[in-house]
Design goal:
Blueprint lengths: L5 E6 L5 H4 L2 H9 L3 E6 L1 H10 L4 E4 L13 H30 L3 E5 L11 E4 L15 H12 L4 E4 L11 H4 L7 E3 L20 E6 L6 H13 L6 E4 L9 E3 L4 E4 L4 H9 L1 E6 L3 H10 L2 E4 L6 H12 L4 E2 L7 H7 L13 H12 L2
Length: about 375
């Protein structure tokens, strides 16, 4: 009898968005009778361990990238390029050892550039073929595009979690420039969508929910700004701090506001459905989740994070989601303005993801 294939899923550890969008991939792998190994570190490790306690985990070191406490993201990134390149080389060697140790048959890498190997099929998952840069560094965008494609070309396939045509969730990030022949659009991915109520007369439990996420120190900066404001809001709301390493405990901040350190996927989906308005970062994984649930939202991009700034502006100009900047973010004002933005709801189809995973397994 042919053994079950061993497939390693390994998300980038910059925030938890890369980990959350791996959840539907891991679920489909399990459904197709695969032995799944998860390689992760830091918050993604903690989150996925709670979602899949039955699976085998490997501590897979990240790039040790440090985000700035101000909006000088591009300058900070430029200074850390040598360290990132070194990290890519190190993780490639780490993977070689892991393949032998665990008898890995294939790898699905979510934005980890060093997880390619010529002995087994390797998949690269990304929504960002074009890397956005600040306007004063626009001259570097073509160079980064070529460098990005060069690394992706080392993989057998590139999977983009978006639609190939029509209105696309990633906009220019995956559709502005040409893609490689080994690229497949697999439609958006979301861990949510199973609890949507057909009843249009939704009675909301909360007026708003703030979902805090992203890497430090900006996660804590956003948390501090949010908690300072909700002290004085006379509306029922909830705040999820995005700290999966802490006990998932409900705390009453005051008579109107409830706070959670973290919620599992099922609980978070229910909370989002029960909330009229969502306030969050416009990370691509968050956007995929909100569209899956058809929610209205206010996007607060991480200062200096050009991808989030682009996505927030993209949806704002389309009249879909309200955008505010962190430096002048005002929850009261946001809740007054958000009804002018229609949101976006489109049912996701997992057919393309199933096909790509079936194709991958057939090669093993």
């Amino acid at each position: 009898m042919k053994k079950k294939p061993n497939i390693l899923v390994c998300p980038l550890d910059w925030g938890i968005g890369h980990a959350t969008r791996c959840i539907p991939i891991i679920n489909e792998l399990i459904h197709q009778d695969v032995n799944v190994f998860i390689g992760a570190d830091n918050l993604p490790y903690t989150l996925l361990k709670k979602e899949f306690p039955q699976l085998q985990f490997v501590r897979f070191p990240g790039y040790k990238f440090a985000y700035p406490g101000n909006d000088k993201m591009a300058i900070k990134m430029a200074k850390q390029v040598p360290g990132i390149l070194s990290g890519i080389k190190s993780e490639n060697q780490f993977l070689k050892n892991l393949i032998q140790k665990l008898d890995i048959d294939a790898v699905i890498s979510d934005n980890r550039f060093g997880l390619y190997n010529d002995k087994i099929p390797c998949i690269f998952l990304t929504h960002q073929i074009t890397i956005k840069v600040p306007s004063f560094l626009k001259i570097l965008e073509p160079i980064l595009y070529k460098l990005n494609k060069r690394y992706i070309s080392k993989y057998d396939e590139c999977w983009i979690p978006d639609w190939e045509d029509g209105f696309t969730l990633s906009g220019d990030l995956s559709h502005k420039k040409s893609i490689m022949a080994n690229t497949y659009f697999i439609a958006p991915l979301s861990r949510f969508g199973k609890q949507i109520k057909e009843n249009k007369e939704q009675n909301y439990k909360y007026e708003f929910a703030v979902i805090i996420s992203g890497p430090e120190p900006q996660r804590s900066i956003f948390e501090e700004a949010v908690l300072k404001q909700v002290k004085h809001i006379n509306k029922h709301g909830v705040v999820v701090l995005g700290k999966p390493g802490f006990k998932d405990q409900e705390n009453k901040f005051n008579e109107n506001i409830t706070i959670y350190s973290h919620l599992g996927s099922y609980e978070l989906e229910k909370l989002i459905i029960d909330s009229k308005t969502i306030i969050c970062r416009p990370g691509f994984s968050s956007i995929m989740d909100l569209v899956a649930l058809g929610k209205q939202a206010v996007f607060i991009p991480t200062p200096g994070q050009t991808e989030q700034e682009y996505l927030a502006e993209y949806y704002f100009k389309e009249g879909l989601f309200l955008r505010m900047f962190q430096q002048n973010f005002d929850i009261d004002m946001a809740l007054k303005q958000v009804d002018d933005y229609v949101g976006l709801q489109r049912k996701y189809d997992s057919k393309l993801l199933k096909e790509r995973i079936q194709s991958l397994i057939s090669k093993l």
